Amino acid sequence: MPYDITSIRQDALRSEISRLRGKPVTEMEQLVFDVVLEGGQRMIARCERAGPDQEDPREVQRRLHKHATVLDTLQKAYDIPVPLVYHIEPDPKVIGAPWILMDRISGGMLHYVVSRWDKAVKEDNMKVVLAQHATVYACIFDTIMPEPLSSMLAEERQYDHIDPMPTAFDIKLHYESFTDDPDLLRARAYRQETATFIAHRFWKLMHDGEHSAEADGHPELPVLHKLKALVPAFIPTVEAYLELDDNGQSLLGSKKLHHYDPSVSNIMVDFDTAKITGIIDWEFTVAVPALLSAAYPEWIRYDGQQSPTSHWSSHLLQLSPDKFEYGKWREMYEDNVGKISANYLKAMRAGRELQELVDWCRFAVYGLPLDERMAFLDSWVNSKAAEFGVDVESVPIRRKRDWM
């Protein structure tokens, strides 16, 4: 049963949050606090920034309700271990900022727990974690997204742009032959949805907002144009999009629930049992094409030396490329997934190269030294261009104004 929020003195709650932060709530960015309620019950209060110069209060309210709906759906429809939401307060007047009160998940972040396991138990414990992770994400993939979450995600601004992506920036897929076959037309439409979704990611990174590559004057803009030009070659064939899953939906094209930040810091694990106690930070959840939803865990997705995630998840677990640890764990993860969901395994394998491209789009500027990283990415792009027969050298370098 939800905690009775009316029994909590609002001024006491505000005082506790302010004490933890050390300054008034109204000055905070979005922050998370471990709050002790009456009777010693420990919970999490997640606060949004508030104030007259901030975003539309209705957008804050929508985001809070979306977060709560995602968590509620994951518990009830997917049986996923996530925090239970006790109360949503979109009114900033109550404690000085909009907030949401939820369960405090026990355990520690995966990389923190792994670093403290003895060598004698580390491998066996990692096997337990991977098996549970495979079960969680295969379940999400195989379950039809229920209402009201499905409609909520379909209607919201999935791509979170400051300026809308111009039509000219989209990645358009072309076909040599005409068809009026409804199945082929549907498969082509799913492929185009995949390409357009990726185009939105590129728009945000390259041109949208004060932290985009163009705005910051980063040197990666030319290589990102090349990377974008490779997308059509990486998307599976129309024939692959014709395959249906067990629910009668497109195996690669139907929309799936997607955790936007599935890093090691958002997976909570019990130190003694290696059990996943919870997966957190679902507030930016989106609905994505199934091909992009199915992916190897971020921390073993690549070999860790120089990769899209080597600045973060791969590095934090401190696995050894020399001992082929990344490959070993990927194979083990595939075995676990295969026992649970043949469809998830197919989609995961089909989208592996495209996932790497999308990850480079997301994380191109992360990791130091930047010059070395850009040189590696440029080499990667050129080798893939040669493999797929794509001319990336003649791709024009355009600015935001050129697309408008």
UniProtKB/TrEMBL annotation:
Signal peptide range in chain numbering? none
Top-level taxonomic group:
Eukaryota
Q: Which residues form a coiled coil?
A: none
Q: What is this protein called?
A: Aminoglycoside phosphotransferase domain-containing protein
| UniProt organism field | Lentinula lateritia
